[in-house]
Amino acid sequence: MYIVTAEEMYDMDNGAMNKVGLDGKLLMENAGRAIAAVIKERVKNTDVIRIFAGGGNNGGDGFVIGRTLLDDGYDVTVYQVVPDEKLTGDALYHKQRFERCGGIVSILQTSFEAGQLAGEADAVVDAIAGIGLNGRLREPLASMTADINEKASYVFSVDIPSGLPANEGWDDFDAIQANETIIAGYPKMSAFLERTAPYYGTWTVVSFGLPSVVTSNCSRRSVWTEEQFRHTMPKRKQYSHKGTHGKGLAAGGSAEMPGSIAMTASAALRSGAGLITAATVRSAIPTVASQCVEATYLALEETDGLLTCDRPISFDHYDAVAMGMGMGRHVEGRRFIQEALEKATTPLIIDADGLYHVKALLESLKRRWAPVILTPHLGEMAMLAGITVSELRQRPFAYAKTFAENYGVHLVLKGPFTIITSPDGCQTVTTVGNAGLAKGGSGDVLSGVILAMMMQDQSIMEALGNACFAHGKAADMLVSESHSMYDLIASDLLHEMVNVYRTCIEQS
């Protein structure tokens, strides 16, 4: 499923009309009918439904929705929120069809009317403004949306909540707060941004007949779904052995933070790694080994409980390496990361304190030919990119893409929506996971899952998509079955991985 900007969506629409020859009225008919079909699943035919329609394509969809519901016996009225002279083209055509089928259209004059009418309805359909909006809603539409938000009991938004930007980079807007948004074609970028996503409520995507000849290669962003997880996860062969599934190294930890490396090693083993070696300071090994008895251990030299680089590690025997978890921010840690960047010839995953050291080693990333995977949360990403967290929240897709391309890395930007970016700028997003993951140790577990996935028979982007999906899905299953977002802790994820695999792979 693609994730598109407003411009990309318009390119697809224009391609369907100008290259293929599909009439815009037909596309609007298809979209409106598809959206109406979803609405009919949610409401009773005795419910009072009021549609607020603007003057553009979004309003035209509203008239098609109204006619479709009217034909099926629903109690529906359309309220036009713009003067007649602002209604043209395909939207005007479908208004006329609605009226000829017995539909009633009333033109609203004030925001008070909109609020009062919304409050009297069982369901409101918001078809006021679509993805073409540039800037804030003007009056009286801004006040109308505010009054609808205050009075409506349930709102369906058509394609996008009116007033909401489709693209990233906008922080100043007035928008409908939808209970549910029914998206036409493909989800827009703002459905995956921390600031704008809540306005969508829950969302559903419907198709309206765009031919594949105009949709393929129109976007380099996509959603990583459970279907892709099922399809791309390598199946275990009957005669495979532990070496088949990879020998990984998890390096980090300290005397004061032994749990981080323990969770990374355990997560890698739970996620399918054949062999895992945990490299940590000698004083932490008893603690780590008591939590992960299946791993082997490599003792690192230490000073005051922190690792040192007095005795170099040989990376030659490992299929992938994860490091940085709990290692500390001392200068020896930076030397350790530098050594791995220069000597490890297999995929290198860097997380946590390792990302702090990478900030001073950015040029080394450019010189490395073997894959590097960085896994920052928003604060760490802002530090690496030299921007504020607020700036990053407004444009996470753009900043992640620029950084990954500039430094030749795979970037896993963790957050409510995790954005995975390849060195060539392709991006995929996972939508699983919940606020229960906002706990110390969750990232350490994810690093272990990524370590395991990197050693399986799949591409790097497939490995990262599957790792992030499995990690988030485990949290969702725990919260739905036995935990809450309050009590969920990172180690719970380790034990839930079995259910992710059994549910999503072995029983598929």
Name the poorly predicted regions.
none
Assign the CATH class of the largest domain.
Alpha Beta
Helical stretch tally: 19
Q: What composes the largest sheet? A: 10 strands, mixed
Classified in CATH, the superfamily of the largest domain is: Ribokinase
Overall average residue pLDDT? 92
Radius of gyration: 26 Å
Structural class: alpha/beta
Distance between the termini: 20 Å
Keywords: ATP-binding, Isomerase, Lyase, Metal-binding, Multifunctional enzyme, NAD, NADP, Nucleotide-binding, Potassium
Protein name: Bifunctional NAD(P)H-hydrate repair enzyme
Catalytic activity: (6R)-NADHX = (6S)-NADHX; (6S)-NADPHX + ADP = AMP + phosphate + NADPH + H(+); (6R)-NADPHX = (6S)-NADPHX; (6S)-NADHX + ADP = AMP + phosphate + NADH + H(+)
Pfam family, one: YjeF_N
Secondary structure topology:
Elements: H1 6-20, H2 24-42, E1 48-53, H3 57-71, E2 75-80, H4 89-100, E3 105-107, H5 111-120, E4 123-127, H6 141-151, E5 155-158, E6 180-184, E7 202-206, H7 212-215, E8 221-223, H8 226-232, E9 247-251, H9 258-270, E10 275-281, H10 285-291, E11 296-300, E12 302-303, E13 306-307, E14 320-323, H11 331-343, E15 348-350, H12 353-358, H13 362-367, E16 372-374, H14 378-385, H15 389-394, H16 396-407, E17 410-413, E18 418-421, E19 427-430, H17 442-454, H18 460-481, H19 490-506
Parallel strand pairs: 1-2, 1-4, 2-3, 4-5, 5-6, 6-7, 8-19, 9-10, 9-14, 10-11, 14-15, 15-16, 16-17
Antiparallel strand pairs: 12-13, 17-18, 18-19
Helix pairs in contact: 2-3, 2-4, 3-4, 5-6, 8-18, 9-10, 9-17, 9-19, 17-18, 17-19, 18-19
